[in-house]
Amino acid sequence: MINILICDDCSKTLQLIKNIVIKTYEEEMNFKDFNVLTFNNSADLISYVKNSVEKNIYILDIDLNEEKNGLKLGREIRKLDQYSGEMIFVTNHIELSFKVFQYKLRVVTFINKSLNLESQLKESLLIATEILNKQKDEKQKKLIIKIGTETFKILSQDIIYIETIKNSRKVILYSTNTMVEFYSTLKELMNSLDDNFIQIHKTSIVNKKYIKNVCKNSNNPHVEMTTGAICSISRTGLKEVSKACG
Protein backbone atom coordinates (compact mmCIF):
# COMPACT_ATOMS: atom_id res chain seq x y z
CA MET A 1 0.00 0.00 0.00
CA ILE A 2 1.21 3.48 -0.92
CA ASN A 3 -0.34 6.49 0.80
CA ILE A 4 -0.45 9.78 -1.07
CA LEU A 5 -0.70 12.57 1.49
CA ILE A 6 -1.70 15.97 0.12
CA CYS A 7 -1.41 19.14 2.19
CA ASP A 8 -2.76 22.47 0.90
CA ASP A 9 -4.72 25.19 2.66
CA CYS A 10 -6.96 25.69 -0.40
CA SER A 11 -9.83 23.18 -0.51
CA LYS A 12 -10.28 23.68 -4.26
CA THR A 13 -6.61 22.87 -4.92
CA LEU A 14 -6.77 19.87 -2.59
CA GLN A 15 -9.63 18.39 -4.57
CA LEU A 16 -7.97 19.15 -7.90
CA ILE A 17 -4.73 17.43 -6.89
CA LYS A 18 -6.62 14.49 -5.39
CA ASN A 19 -8.50 13.99 -8.66
CA ILE A 20 -5.26 14.07 -10.65
CA VAL A 21 -3.66 11.54 -8.29
CA ILE A 22 -6.58 9.11 -8.52
CA LYS A 23 -6.72 9.43 -12.30
CA THR A 24 -2.98 8.87 -12.62
CA TYR A 25 -2.94 5.70 -10.52
CA GLU A 26 -6.13 4.18 -11.88
CA GLU A 27 -5.86 5.12 -15.56
CA GLU A 28 -2.18 5.79 -16.27
CA MET A 29 -0.58 3.15 -14.04
CA ASN A 30 -3.44 0.70 -13.51
CA PHE A 31 -2.28 0.67 -9.90
CA LYS A 32 -4.87 -0.22 -7.25
CA ASP A 33 -2.92 -0.52 -4.01
CA PHE A 34 -2.99 3.15 -3.02
CA ASN A 35 -4.81 5.49 -0.68
CA VAL A 36 -5.24 9.28 -1.00
CA LEU A 37 -5.55 11.45 2.11
CA THR A 38 -5.95 15.24 2.15
CA PHE A 39 -4.99 17.71 4.87
CA ASN A 40 -5.65 21.46 5.03
CA ASN A 41 -3.15 22.09 7.83
CA SER A 42 0.29 20.83 8.84
CA ALA A 43 -0.67 19.67 12.35
CA ASP A 44 -3.10 17.04 11.10
CA LEU A 45 -0.59 15.76 8.55
CA ILE A 46 2.20 15.49 11.14
CA SER A 47 -0.14 13.65 13.50
CA TYR A 48 -0.86 11.13 10.75
CA VAL A 49 2.80 10.65 9.76
CA LYS A 50 3.76 9.94 13.39
CA ASN A 51 1.55 6.86 13.33
CA SER A 52 2.11 5.82 9.72
CA VAL A 53 3.84 2.54 8.87
CA GLU A 54 3.13 2.57 5.13
CA LYS A 55 5.26 4.12 2.40
CA ASN A 56 4.12 7.69 1.80
CA ILE A 57 4.26 10.13 -1.09
CA TYR A 58 3.87 13.70 0.16
CA ILE A 59 2.44 16.42 -2.07
CA LEU A 60 2.98 19.69 -0.21
CA ASP A 61 2.11 23.30 -0.87
CA ILE A 62 4.95 25.60 0.14
CA ASP A 63 2.79 28.64 0.87
CA LEU A 64 0.56 27.31 3.67
CA ASN A 65 -1.55 29.98 5.33
CA GLU A 66 -0.03 29.36 8.76
CA GLU A 67 3.16 29.94 10.72
CA LYS A 68 4.73 26.72 9.44
CA ASN A 69 5.33 26.85 5.68
CA GLY A 70 5.67 23.81 3.45
CA LEU A 71 9.45 23.73 3.74
CA LYS A 72 9.36 23.63 7.54
CA LEU A 73 6.64 21.01 7.32
CA GLY A 74 8.84 18.98 4.98
CA ARG A 75 11.73 19.17 7.42
CA GLU A 76 9.51 17.94 10.27
CA ILE A 77 8.27 15.07 8.11
CA ARG A 78 11.85 14.04 7.31
CA LYS A 79 12.65 13.83 11.01
CA LEU A 80 9.77 11.39 11.37
CA ASP A 81 10.05 9.25 8.24
CA GLN A 82 13.87 9.20 8.03
CA TYR A 83 13.66 9.92 4.27
CA SER A 84 11.71 6.73 3.59
CA GLY A 85 8.95 8.50 1.63
CA GLU A 86 9.00 10.62 -1.53
CA MET A 87 8.21 14.34 -1.48
CA ILE A 88 6.71 16.59 -4.17
CA PHE A 89 6.23 20.34 -3.77
CA VAL A 90 3.57 22.34 -5.60
CA THR A 91 3.48 26.13 -5.44
CA ASN A 92 2.92 29.38 -7.26
CA HIS A 93 6.19 30.65 -5.79
CA ILE A 94 8.67 28.87 -8.01
CA GLU A 95 11.39 31.29 -6.88
CA LEU A 96 11.47 29.39 -3.57
CA SER A 97 12.62 26.16 -5.22
CA PHE A 98 16.28 26.71 -4.31
CA LYS A 99 15.36 26.68 -0.61
CA VAL A 100 14.43 23.01 -0.89
CA PHE A 101 18.15 22.25 -1.12
CA GLN A 102 18.92 24.43 1.89
CA TYR A 103 16.44 22.41 3.93
CA LYS A 104 17.97 19.11 2.68
CA LEU A 105 14.57 17.56 2.00
CA ARG A 106 15.41 15.24 -0.93
CA VAL A 107 12.42 15.90 -3.14
CA VAL A 108 11.28 14.27 -6.38
CA THR A 109 10.41 17.58 -8.00
CA PHE A 110 9.16 21.11 -7.56
CA ILE A 111 5.96 21.86 -9.51
CA ASN A 112 4.65 25.23 -10.63
CA LYS A 113 0.89 25.16 -9.97
CA SER A 114 0.14 27.55 -12.79
CA LEU A 115 2.06 25.62 -15.47
CA ASN A 116 0.62 22.28 -16.69
CA LEU A 117 -0.10 21.06 -13.17
CA GLU A 118 -1.69 17.79 -14.29
CA SER A 119 1.08 16.66 -16.64
CA GLN A 120 3.82 17.66 -14.18
CA LEU A 121 2.12 15.89 -11.30
CA LYS A 122 1.54 12.72 -13.34
CA GLU A 123 5.20 12.54 -14.27
CA SER A 124 6.28 13.16 -10.66
CA LEU A 125 3.95 10.47 -9.32
CA LEU A 126 5.29 7.95 -11.83
CA ILE A 127 8.85 8.67 -10.67
CA ALA A 128 7.98 8.60 -6.96
CA THR A 129 6.06 5.33 -7.27
CA GLU A 130 8.87 3.70 -9.25
CA ILE A 131 11.35 4.66 -6.51
CA LEU A 132 9.16 3.19 -3.76
CA ASN A 133 8.55 0.00 -5.74
CA LYS A 134 12.27 -0.40 -6.34
CA GLN A 135 12.92 -0.02 -2.61
CA LYS A 136 10.30 -2.68 -1.95
CA ASP A 137 11.96 -5.05 -4.44
CA GLU A 138 15.33 -4.47 -2.78
CA LYS A 139 13.88 -5.40 0.60
CA GLN A 140 12.40 -8.57 -0.84
CA LYS A 141 15.65 -9.85 -2.36
CA LYS A 142 16.51 -13.33 -1.18
CA LEU A 143 19.67 -15.37 -0.86
CA ILE A 144 19.12 -18.89 -2.18
CA ILE A 145 21.16 -21.62 -0.51
CA LYS A 146 21.16 -25.38 -0.98
CA ILE A 147 21.65 -27.91 1.79
CA GLY A 148 21.63 -31.43 0.43
CA THR A 149 18.48 -31.81 -1.64
CA GLU A 150 16.73 -28.88 0.03
CA THR A 151 16.67 -25.25 -1.11
CA PHE A 152 16.24 -22.37 1.32
CA LYS A 153 15.43 -18.74 0.60
CA ILE A 154 16.46 -16.13 3.16
CA LEU A 155 15.57 -12.46 2.89
CA SER A 156 18.76 -10.48 2.39
CA GLN A 157 17.53 -7.76 4.72
CA ASP A 158 17.28 -10.34 7.55
CA ILE A 159 20.88 -11.56 7.25
CA ILE A 160 23.05 -10.14 10.05
CA TYR A 161 26.41 -11.70 9.24
CA ILE A 162 28.10 -14.75 7.72
CA GLU A 163 31.33 -16.34 8.90
CA THR A 164 33.54 -19.19 7.79
CA ILE A 165 34.04 -22.33 9.88
CA LYS A 166 37.66 -23.05 10.71
CA ASN A 167 39.17 -26.03 8.86
CA SER A 168 36.01 -26.49 6.85
CA ARG A 169 34.52 -25.47 3.51
CA LYS A 170 31.33 -24.49 5.27
CA VAL A 171 30.01 -21.14 6.43
CA ILE A 172 27.44 -20.16 9.06
CA LEU A 173 24.78 -17.60 8.23
CA TYR A 174 23.14 -15.72 11.10
CA SER A 175 19.85 -13.98 10.40
CA THR A 176 17.25 -12.31 12.59
CA ASN A 177 15.37 -15.57 12.99
CA THR A 178 17.66 -18.48 12.13
CA MET A 179 21.20 -19.86 11.87
CA VAL A 180 22.14 -21.96 8.85
CA GLU A 181 25.30 -23.95 8.14
CA PHE A 182 26.08 -24.81 4.52
CA TYR A 183 28.83 -25.26 1.92
CA SER A 184 29.93 -22.05 0.20
CA THR A 185 32.66 -19.44 0.07
CA LEU A 186 32.52 -15.80 1.07
CA LYS A 187 33.48 -14.86 -2.49
CA GLU A 188 30.48 -16.71 -3.92
CA LEU A 189 28.18 -15.14 -1.34
CA MET A 190 29.44 -11.61 -1.96
CA ASN A 191 28.54 -12.05 -5.63
CA SER A 192 24.96 -12.88 -4.60
CA LEU A 193 24.47 -10.18 -1.96
CA ASP A 194 23.65 -6.49 -2.39
CA ASP A 195 25.57 -3.35 -1.43
CA ASN A 196 24.48 -3.55 2.21
CA PHE A 197 27.02 -6.33 2.74
CA ILE A 198 30.72 -5.83 3.39
CA GLN A 199 33.44 -8.45 3.63
CA ILE A 200 35.31 -7.07 6.61
CA HIS A 201 37.74 -9.96 7.02
CA LYS A 202 38.77 -13.13 5.22
CA THR A 203 36.49 -14.94 7.66
CA SER A 204 33.35 -12.80 7.69
CA ILE A 205 30.74 -10.77 5.83
CA VAL A 206 28.47 -8.36 7.71
CA ASN A 207 25.28 -6.50 6.89
CA LYS A 208 26.09 -2.85 7.58
CA LYS A 209 22.52 -2.25 8.78
CA TYR A 210 23.25 -4.37 11.85
CA ILE A 211 26.61 -2.86 12.79
CA LYS A 212 26.37 -1.41 16.30
CA ASN A 213 29.96 -0.39 16.94
CA VAL A 214 33.39 -0.49 15.29
CA CYS A 215 36.41 -0.96 17.56
CA LYS A 216 39.61 0.26 15.89
CA ASN A 217 41.92 -0.90 18.69
CA SER A 218 45.13 -1.99 16.97
CA ASN A 219 45.43 -5.04 19.25
CA ASN A 220 41.92 -6.31 18.64
CA PRO A 221 40.03 -4.51 15.85
CA HIS A 222 36.49 -5.80 15.51
CA VAL A 223 32.88 -5.02 14.68
CA GLU A 224 30.11 -5.44 17.23
CA MET A 225 26.74 -6.34 15.73
CA THR A 226 23.36 -5.35 17.17
CA THR A 227 22.97 -8.93 18.43
CA GLY A 228 26.16 -8.61 20.48
CA ALA A 229 28.17 -10.82 18.12
CA ILE A 230 31.82 -9.82 17.60
CA CYS A 231 33.47 -10.13 14.17
CA SER A 232 37.17 -9.56 13.51
CA ILE A 233 37.96 -6.81 11.03
CA SER A 234 41.03 -6.28 8.85
CA ARG A 235 42.62 -2.97 7.85
CA THR A 236 40.94 -3.19 4.47
CA GLY A 237 37.69 -4.02 6.22
CA LEU A 238 38.01 -0.93 8.40
CA LYS A 239 38.35 1.22 5.31
CA GLU A 240 35.32 -0.41 3.69
CA VAL A 241 33.19 0.02 6.81
CA SER A 242 34.25 3.65 7.20
CA LYS A 243 33.38 4.32 3.57
CA ALA A 244 30.02 2.53 3.73
CA CYS A 245 28.87 3.81 7.10
CA GLY A 246 30.33 7.30 6.91
Count helical runs.
7
Cα(first) to Cα(last) distance is 32 Å
What is the CATH homologous superfamily assignment of the largest domain? Response regulator
Shape: elongated
Protein name: Stage 0 sporulation protein A homolog
Function: Required for high-level post-exponential phase expression of a series of secreted proteins.
Domain Response regulatory: 3-128
Pfam family, one: LytTR
What can you see in these coordinates?
Keywords: Activator, Cytoplasm, DNA-binding, Phosphoprotein, Two-component regulatory system. GO terms for molecular function: DNA binding; phosphorelay response regulator activity. Pfam families: LytTR, Response_reg. This is Stage 0 sporulation protein A homolog. This protein has 246 residues and is α/β, with parallel strands linked by helices. It has two domains: 138 residues, Response regulator (Rossmann fold); 104 residues, Beta Barrel (OB fold (Dihydrolipoamide Acetyltransferase, E2P)). The protein has seven helices and 15 strands. A five-stranded parallel sheet has the order 2-1-3-4-5, with helices on both faces. A five-stranded antiparallel sheet has the order 10-9-8-12-11. Helix 1 crosses helix 5 and helix 2 packs parallel to helix 3. The longest helix is centred in the middle third of the chain and has 23 residues. The radius of gyration is 23 Å and the shape is elongated. The two termini are 32 Å apart. The model has no long low-confidence stretch (mean pLDDT 91).
